[in-house]
Amino acid sequence: MFRFFKNVSREMKKVSWPKGKELTSYTITVITTVAFVALFFFLIDLGITQILNLL
Predict the structure, then answer these.
(1) Distance of CA 39 to the CA centre of its chain
(2) If you compute the radius of gyration of the chain from its CA atoms, what whole number of angstroms results?
(3) Do residues 43 and 35 lie in contact, with contact meaning Cβ atoms separated by under 8 Å?
(4) Where are the transmembrane segments (predicted)?
């Protein structure tokens, strides 16, 4: 168990972590994409609901 955590610690030191500006840019991109996809599926769901209510 100790060796496992030692190896994890060693590998985590090799990771290239994003800097502040990169992190902000990535976060904005993810939030924008999620909002767009949520809006898209909301509109599709609304349209399908309206079609089914007409039948």
Answers:
(1) 15
(2) 22
(3) no
(4) 23-44
Which percentage of the chain shows pLDDT scores above 70?
100
* C-alpha–C-alpha distance, residues 15 and 52, integer Å: 51
DSSP secondary structure string for all residues of 17-48: ---HHHHHHHHHHHHHHHHHHHHHHHHHHHHH
Looking at residue 54, the DSSP 8-state letter turns out to be H
Q: Would you say 18 and 26 are in contact if contact means Cβ atoms under 8 Å apart?
A: yes
pTM comes to: 0.67
- 26 Cβ neighbours under 8 A, 6+ residues apart: 18
Using the structure block, give the residue that is written with the tokens 């800097």. 19
